[in-house]
Amino acid sequence: MFNLLRNRWRQFSARLRHERDPERTGRLTGIFVATAAGAPMHSLECTQALVDQGLADDRYALGRGFWRLTDGCQVTLILAENLQAIERQHGLPLGAGQHRRNLVISGLVGVELRHRQLRIGEALLAWHRLRPPCGYLDRVSGSGMAKALGRHGGHCLRVREGGLIQVGDRVTLV
């Protein structure tokens, strides 16, 4: 019951913040790519977002990801604050990309992203849908990872305008 009330409060406060400050911003704190399904994630300082493909050198853009065609994401995103909470609560290491998401951002609330576009560096990305963790995550990152991420598994984005993105870039809701 407490979690339900807390989540509703977060959604309500995010709406209030948006009404007061429609141009909310956050920061890009991490970029991760893998060259193939199950390959280790590599941290990058910068990369190119490719229109209707994903991130350069990532499994999704290269067509080497583990997904069904109807379930694929061009770019995946997760919130740094959620990762920190999961690390504290479950004791799982997540700083080296074990979460298997491409972008890590801080300073925004997940509900703020829904049905919006995000400007990150030169790129414009559109929110597509939630990205819950799947059982494959446990096989690649270790048992219990999917359950730990739970409903904070992230978001799928589509690249609408390509360009360079770099760690430290401002993330602006459009």
TrEMBL record:
<dbReference type="Pfam" id="PF03473">
    <property type="entry name" value="MOSC"/>
</dbReference>
<feature type="domain" description="MOSC">
    <location>
        <begin position="39"/>
        <end position="174"/>
    </location>
</feature>
<dbReference type="GO" id="GO:0030170">
    <property type="term" value="F:pyridoxal phosphate binding"/>
</dbReference>
<dbReference type="GO" id="GO:0003824">
    <property type="term" value="F:catalytic activity"/>
</dbReference>
<dbReference type="InterPro" id="IPR011037">
    <property type="entry name" value="Pyrv_Knase-like_insert_dom_sf"/>
</dbReference>
<dbReference type="GO" id="GO:0030151">
    <property type="term" value="F:molybdenum ion binding"/>
</dbReference>
<dbReference type="InterPro" id="IPR005302">
    <property type="entry name" value="MoCF_Sase_C"/>
</dbReference>
<protein>
    <submittedName>
        <fullName>Sulfurase</fullName>
    </submittedName>
</protein>
<dbReference type="InterPro" id="IPR052716">
    <property type="entry name" value="MOSC_domain"/>
</dbReference>
